[in-house]
Amino acid sequence: MAAVEEGGSIMMILGKTTSRAGVALAISFQCLFAGSATAQLDGVVTRAGGMPLGGVSVEAWSEDLRVGATMTDARGRFSFPELISFSTVLLRVGALGFETQEVAIRAGLVTYQIELEVAPLAIDGLVVTMEEATCEDGREDDLARRLWEYARIRYGGLMDTLGVATYLAEADTVVPLSEFDDLQLPALNLSQRGSSSLLRFNWTRRIDREGYAFEIRRLEGAAPYDSWVYPPLEADFAPHFVDDAFGDRHRFVVDDESSDGWLLAYCPKDDGKPTIKGTITLARDTTFAAVDWIFQTPEPLEHAGGRAYFPPILPGSGPSYLLPSEAVIWREVPTGDYLQSYQRYEDWRVVPGDSVPLLPLRREADGADINR
């Protein structure tokens, strides 16, 4: 009931109606009757040719709220229990490198086969789009600021006294810009990632002093070259996007509004230090769905940036933190190619204290498919 009231508050505060068309309402009534006899809602997600896709996000939606979310397993399978199936009228399925697909639930049908189409990342176009963000003229939308403020209070901020850890599947590839569109990945490596509150606090202080990048020397074979180190916005430092410091440094503009939610453009206030700019995608329930960013630095220009996806906040799930489920980051290397780093996270663990939580070792078969 609290989540429903919360959704109502969104509509009153922002003046946005999120009701679906009458056909969706009819579907929901049909599902009420079908749900009583349905043990669960399940299915399989594939790509063209019937190849199963593991690690794909599947969200269950009622008319106004995300009521459930899961990830496909190694065989592309997913399922929701009866309690969630009963109120679901729509499945929203997506992953980095694929078009998001929405599937309406049909009366009496409880198993679905969903095929996703490849969606080129088009990093060059994404960089151009963010470089031409609509907040560059110095203005800020009151609505955009209110949307960001409302969304950020749904999360636990920078988690100043908490340690975090997660299971991680990752892969690095170096590709020409001309091929940096379809997210082609080698086999993913399984590992773990974690951080203490002290480490994240040090990143916050470094941004205060030096901005969003600091220069180092790297080696390419035997030749040294200048490069930048960037904060891990794609991982355990993603809560920075709901922190006071982020809000103080940026202006917000509503770039787009649709039945799916809002796209906010954010631009830095000029302080003479390396900055970030990009977009925040808010879902219909005013929670973070994705964040895109590019780093703006002096020479050497690396055209670095990233994109992170976030899981939904579910009713009754307890405290929520802005920790990603999937991300990709990139930067240009001296050859003119791009280093692309893909990361998929599973089961973020958040505990009190300044230590990194310990996670039990996992075999490849324990989690979702590490290949795509």
Question: Would you give an account of this structure?
Answer:
With about 375 residues, this protein is of the alpha+beta class. It folds into two domains: about 1-115, Immunoglobulin-like; about 125-365, no CATH class. The chain is built from seven helices and 19 strands. The chain has helices spanning about 1-15, 20-35, 80-85, 125-130, 140-150, 195-210, 245-250; strands at about 40-45, 50, 55-60, 65-70, 75-80, 90-95, 100-105, 110-115, 160-175, 190-195, 215-220, 225-230, 250-260, 260-270, 275-285, 290-295, 305-310, 325-330, 340-350. The strands form four sheets. It has a nine-stranded antiparallel sheet, with helices on both faces. It is globular, with a radius of gyration of 21 Å. The chain starts with a helix and ends in a 20-residue tail after the last strand.
Number of domains: 2
Q: Oligomeric state of the chains?
A: single chain
| Number of DSSP-assigned strands | 19
The main sheet orders its strands as 10-9-19-18-17-16-15-14-13
The unreliable regions are 1-38
Order of helices and strands: HHEEEEEHEEEHHEEHEEHEEEEEEE
The termini sit apart by 39 Å
Estimate what percentage of residues fall within beta strands.
35-45%
Q: State the secondary-structure class.
A: alpha+beta
Q: What is the number of helices?
A: 7
Helix percentage range = 10-25%
Q: Note the overall shape.
A: globular
Mean pLDDT, rounded to whole units? 80
Q: What's the Cα radius of gyration?
A: 21 Å
Largest sheet: 9 strands, antiparallel
